[in-house]
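Write out the 3D structure for:
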Amino acid sequence: MLKKIVAIGPESTGKSTLCELLAQHYRTAWVPEYAREYLLKHGTSYTLDDLTAIAKGQLAAEDAYALSLLNNADFAPFLSDDLDRKLLFIDTDMYVMKVWGEFVFNACPPFVLEQVVSRQYDLYLLCNTDLPWVADELREYPDLETRDKLYHIYKDILVNQSTPWVDISGSPEERLAKAIGAVERYVLGR
């Protein structure tokens, strides 16, 4: 049985690092954020149509990792034998695409909204803005006020849906410990 755990939140809040560390801890796979790959290839002047393409690429990657993990095809050496459930950690989902579209364009691609309704996950890890900002060529919002505003948009979304979620804050070590605790409690039932 595959269980999907998603890290969401504003940019530069440690989502990728958290997913990678969780995958290492549980000896499984994680799905990187497709937007990085897309924007590095196509540039940072994007449109709402680009967000649809990014959303489709994100979901295609998620589906490919999930299928491969279920089949043990590419990830067999990494899978823990003691887990009766396979875990897939995902950096970004359609909530992120929804917030991104609405924040930048005041609109959300219909495809994204359809996927928000149809996709199911087992746990959300909401990454807080208490990590220092790390600049790179793709990040757009270095100011804490905007990042906090985005964080609260994500939090409002999670409060108003039924999947369990946990706020992930603190030092990198504390974040990992909180995330592992949440996976143990909400996904593995330990």
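The beta strands are 2-8, 29-31, 86-91, 123-127, 165-168.
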